Amino acid sequence: MERNEALALVEPHLKAVRFEHTKRVVDTAINLAEQYGVDKQKAELAAVFHDYAKYRDKQEMQRWIEQEALPKDLLDFHHELWHGPVGALLVKREIGITDQSVLDAIRWHTTGRANMTPLEKVVFLADYIEPGRDFPGVGEVRDQAKQDLDRACWMALKNTITFLMSKDATIYPDTFHAYNDLLRVVE
Ligand code: DGI
Ligand code: FE
Ligand code: FE
To answer: Which of 107, 135, 160 best tests ligand 1's pocket when mutated (most atoms within 8 Å of CB)?
Structure first.
């Protein structure tokens, strides 16, 4: 699917600010893919649709999780986490994307997971470092992204975990699994 065609399909599902974020994630993901030898077309496609389900209402996402083969424990965690797995499902059903590697990159873009593929890392990291982001510490992650994909993902996970813990928020186990897995790789 051509980039502008894909963007035209996602745009009606997003608010304007989210669509602008999506376009920056696409540019960032393509650059990372180029740098790290990841398929650029897959990175582009996954980035375009990564937030596809961001604005589905909570009840609808809950229904998809209950009805489809998605982990039920998602329902015990913040609904902010649901748009990745539900997005992957809906992008398959509604857009017709069948490439499992692309669907997985969408699925895991928020939480990460252990043993992420390079494509999953590229989309996860692009979402975190796109130029519109201003999380504390994002500058260091951007610098690291020029050197080491694993270390940059690990830093992003560490920042997110630290941030969530500072707010006494729950942390989805796959986020810890991603952090632990990458720590073994980078240390
Ligand atoms: O959808 P975006 O805003 O572009 O980015 P995202 O999909 O990474 O956002 C989801 C937010 O979810 C992120 O800023 C932090 C929050 N969050 C809540 N619980 C968890 C979590 N993020 C992770 N990684 N793990 C959690 O358990
Ligand atoms: Fe997201
Ligand atoms: Fe995003």
So the answer is: 160
Q: How many other C-beta atoms are found inside a 10 Å radius of the C-beta of residue 92?
A: 17
- For the CA of 123, the nearest ligand: 3
Cβ–Cβ < 8 Å for 19, 11: yes
Task: Domains for the chain: give ranges and CATH numbers.
Answer: 3-186 (1.10.3210.10)
Neighbours of 69 (CB within 10 A): 7
Whole-number Å distance, alpha carbon 81 to ligand 1 midpoint, is 6
Q: Taking the complete model, does pTM exceed 0.85, yes or no?
A: yes
Q: What are 43-76's pLDDT values in tens digits?
A: 999 999 999 999 999 999 999 999 999 999 999 9
Tally Cβ neighbours within 10 Å of residue 26: 25
User: 127 CB under 6 A from ligand 1?
Assistant: yes
CB 156 within 8 A of CB 141: yes
| DSSP H stretches of helix in the chain | 3-10, 16-36, 40-49, 58-67, 83-90, 100-107, 118-129, 138-145, 149-166, 173-186
Q: Which atom of ligand 1 is nearest to the CA of 54?
A: 1
